[in-house]
Specification:
TIM Barrel, globular, binds 2-phosphoglycolic acid, 12 helices, alpha/beta, binds zinc ion, Enolase-like, domain 1, 17 strands
Length: about 400
């Protein structure tokens, strides 16, 4: 039984005050803190400021104390208490912190085992952000240039190779006097355009036997008519953006393509998926916002073959779980993901295993990112019969 629930402020990696809750049951105390995005989709659950959450919290606390630690039931209570479609009244951030703490309580702190032990637990392959731009900071309009160590035999080998590649890229940028610093996710910021970045990451990927990816975060470029490239002054129509994405993917063999079009550009996604899905993973992030309804539309329109899963885009674990199940059942690869403003909490790592996700996006450097890697590295030692996921 839940005997206490506390709300605590916690600073995230952007220095903002985020929500943490601590839930006490007869068997122990379980906490969870939630991250915060920067390039958010407009269909995400609403995130409330900490002071507002503080005012709302006592009402929820009263309802939750005395209940059994049944995460599904608690999620339903959160949804019914909120009474809006996007957690406008209690905040998706508060809802998710409670939802995860309840699931942690149910699984005695081992969220990855929430549904029981599987015969072979599969560990997701990490996707590492090495060079950045856009809303996260950096020289390019595209937000993230990514590496995927798909041949790694375990999580330690995977993150070690990502770290080496990250340093090698930093050294190369420094040598050419292009290095500016690190951005919100600790990807390198440099005086470099898309083309030179692609050359650089392609050669590093070859040296390290990795696949490459881009998160275009194209909603940030879209003004309702055109895709605006601030650095070059280029304004691209939907068709021209399509051509640029396709040419880039083919010329540089970019396997992973996230949000190449704006969040309502389903038709462009469908056209790209029709042409590239055989050899590429086309992933919707802002396109879906981890919403079941939006994924259903994506499935109907064959818009992508992958979907980003960010539980704080929707507000509870059970809603996220339903999106993951639907994605799996339709052959869409679920990619569990961190946010640019992260806390030291590591639940996203457990969810990667629990949900059988082939890929996890959780950055490379910075303790808030390494916390997730460390969790995977340590679980690899504990879990019976672990194996690395294969590329979808
Ligand atoms: P975020 O975005 O800054 O909203 O976390 C990261 C992403 O677009 O994948
Ligand atoms: Zn994204």
């Amino acid at each position: 039984m839940i005997t206490d629930l506390r709300l605590l402020p916690v600073l995230n990696s952007k220095g903002e005050t985020s929500v943490k809750v601590s839930l006490v049951t007869d068997s122990g105390s379980y906490s969870a803190s939630v991250p915060s995005g920067t390039s958010k989709g407009s269909n995400e659950a609403k995130e409330l400021a900490f002071e507002k959450v503080r005012r709302i919290f006592p009402k929820l606390r009263q309802k939750i104390i005395g209940l059994e630690e049944n995460p599904e039931k608690i999620d339903r209570l959160l949804i019914s208490t909120d009474r809006t479609s996007n957690f406008r009244s209690i905040g998706g951030n508060l809802a998710l912190a409670i939802s995860i703490a309840a699931a942690r309580a149910q699984s005695h702190g081992n969220l990855w085992k929430l549904d029981g032990l599987k015969e072979n637990e599969t560990f997701p392959l990490p996707i590492g952000n090495v060079i950045g731009g856009g809303a996260h900071g950096g020289g390019t309009d595209w937000q993230e240039f990514l590496l995927i160590p798909y041949m790694a035999k375990n999580p330690l080998e995977a993150i070690e190779s990502l770290i080496h590649a990250w340093y090698a890229i930093g050294d190369e940028l420094k040598k050419k006097s292009l290095l500016v610093g690190r951005n919100l996710e600790n990807a390198w910021m440099a005086n470099i355009d898309e083309e030179d970045t692609l050359e650089l990451i392609s050669s590093i990927a070859q040296d390290w036997h990795m696949r490459t990816g881009i998160d275009f975060a194209a909603s940030g470029l879209w003004d309702g008519k055109c895709y605006n490239y601030r650095k070059s002054g280029m304004k691209l129509t939907t068709d021209k953006q399509f051509d640029l994405v396709k040419e880039t993917a083919e010329k540089y063999k970019i396997w992973y393509l996230e949000d190449p079009f704006h969040e309502n550009g389903f038709a462009s996604f469908t056209a790209l998926t029709r042409e590239l899905s055989k050899n590429h993973l086309i992933v919707g992030d802002d396109l879906y916002c981890t919403s079941l309804r939006r994924l259903e539309k994506g499935i109907q329109e064959k818009a992508t073959n992958g979907i980003i899963i960010k539980p704080n885009q929707v507000g509870t674990l059970s809603q996220s779980q339903r999106v993951v199940s639907l994605a799996h059942s339709k052959g869409f690869a679920p990619v569990v993901s961190h946010r640019s403003g992260e806390t030291g909490d590591d639940w996203i790592a457990d969810l990667g295993i629990l949900w059988n996700a082939p890929l996890i996006k959780t950055g490379i450097m910075g303790m808030e990112r390494l916390a997730k890697h460390n969790r995977l590295i340590q679980l690899w030692e504990d879990v019976p019969n672990p194996r690395m996921a294969e590329l979808p």
